[in-house]
Design brief:
The structure is a single chain. The chain has 175 residues and is of the alpha/beta class. It has 2 domains: 106 residues, Rossmann fold, CATH 3.40.50.80; 65 residues, no CATH class. Helices cover 20% and strands 22% of the residues. The protein is built from 4 helices and 9 strands, in the order E-H-E-H-E-E-H-E-H-E-E-E-E. It has a 7-stranded mixed beta sheet with strand order 4-3-2-1-5-6-9, sandwiched between helices. Helix 2 links the parallel strand 2 and strand 3. Helix 3 packs parallel to helix 4. It starts with a strand and ends in a 29-residue tail after the last strand.
Amino acid sequence: MLVGGGYGSAPMGWWARELKALGHRVSAVFGAADADRLFGVDDARGLAEPLLVTTDDGSAGARGRVTDVLPDLLAEPGTHVYACGPMAMLRAVTAVARAHGARAWCTVEESMACGVGVCMTCVLPVTWDDGVTRMTRTCVEGPTFDGAAVRWDAARTGGGSLVPADCLGAPRSVR
């Protein structure tokens, strides 16, 4: 299951071709604020079945958000969801996927100033396999993460992230 929001839909046609070449069945939901902001729909046509489109204003496809139609497509056990789009959408897609027993892989759209992990502009709180939350560089360790591991409570929708108090290296008050 591919889920793209806004320009996060742009790589989904490529991903659909890759998954199909590996023998997987592919379905997709693409959404945007309006028809002018939809990307990749034509590229994914014929690769994803079904291919659903949503727009906030109803100018293309169904009126609403990708998460409005997603539950109906997650009936098959073991579904993997691959999502790219705004942070608020990724958070919501992860919640819907988890509620339906699916795993969500989220490609985040953080600003990556240097792209090599030095500047720490793109850090995101992620809980690693050892159970410890770390401010993780999306340009090096990502940009795709298991949505269940991302600390969405601390990820800001406008970019940048808060450092959770239980995060490795978080500031501690000194008394």
